[in-house]
Amino acid sequence: MSSQPETKITSLASTHRGRWAVVLLLASFCAMAAVSWKLARAIGAVPTWGFQPPAMAAAQHSPEDVIGDLGGMPVKISRFVAEYVEYEGDPGWSGPRNGPPPIRTYSSRLESFGFEVRYPDMAMLTSSVMWADKSRYNIYNTPWMHVGIISGGIYPGHGFMNRPHVSNGQLKSEYWWENYEVRKSKKFGLTEYRLSGINPKTKEPASESQEAEVIYLYHDNTGNVLTRIDCSNVPHEAAPCEQRWDLGGQGVAAKVRVMYRRGHLENWRDIQKKVTEVVLSFQACSAESETATIIPASVIPK
Questions:
Q1: Dist CA 119 CA 136 (whole Å)
Q2: 3-state secondary structure of 180
C-alpha cells in the first residue's frame, strides 16, 4: 500500500504547526514590544508624534500655533511644543474627521494635549538642538519628562483628587492586588501606600511585588489631596512614575499628568511648581484673545 497519503497528511500537519508557531512568535514579539514601548514612553524615551492620528499630527505640525480655551483660560502654545492636540468634538483616536476641520479660535475648547519638558530648566523641544539633547539620554538618566493635560469635556471635575479609591486604602476590594495600606514613615514628605497582605502567587509580602505600584499622596493641612504619584515597584531608578494634580486652584479646569523616572521622585514639589508655571505661561495676552483671565494665587505644595 502506498504511503503517499500518510506522508501528505504528516506534511500538512507540520506546516500547520509551523504556521501557528510563527503566529505565536509574532504575538509574543508584539506584546513585548508594546510593554517596552509603554515603559519607555512613560519616561519620555520615545517621541509620541509618530503614533498620532492624522488630525492630531496636523495640529502639531501646522504652520500656526495652537490656540484655544484651556479650562477657562485662553491659551497660545507653540506649534513646536504641543503634541496630541485634541479639541472638543474632534474625532481624536476614533477615526478621520467628517468634513473640513473647523477654524480654531480662543473659544475652541481644548480637551487634551501634551508636551515634553526637561527638568530642572524646563526647556522644551523647540529646536533640533533640544531634540538632539533628548536623544543623548537613556531611561536611567534622562532629565526629560512628558506632560499631559486633560480639560474640557473629559476633565474629571473639581475635587476629583479627593474621591475615595482602593489604591489609597480608603476602599476595600475583593482582589488582593487592589488593597493598599498606609505606611507610618513618609517619603520626601509624601504619605506612602503599599499593597497589604500576601501575594498568593509567590507567598511573599504583596508590598514587594514588582507588578504592584506604590502610591504617594500629599495632603494639605485640611486633608485635601493636592498631589498623587503612582510609581512602578521595579527595583531600579528608571521605574516610571506618574504625578497628577488639579489646576482648579489656579482657576483653570484642567488635570495635569507628568511622567518621569523614579530618580526624580525626590523633586516632586519642584516639578509640580515648575510644570504648573509652564502651563500657566501658555495663557494668551488679553489683546490677542479679547478675554482677560485672572489667575488666582497658586496652590502649590510647600
A1: 15
A2: strand
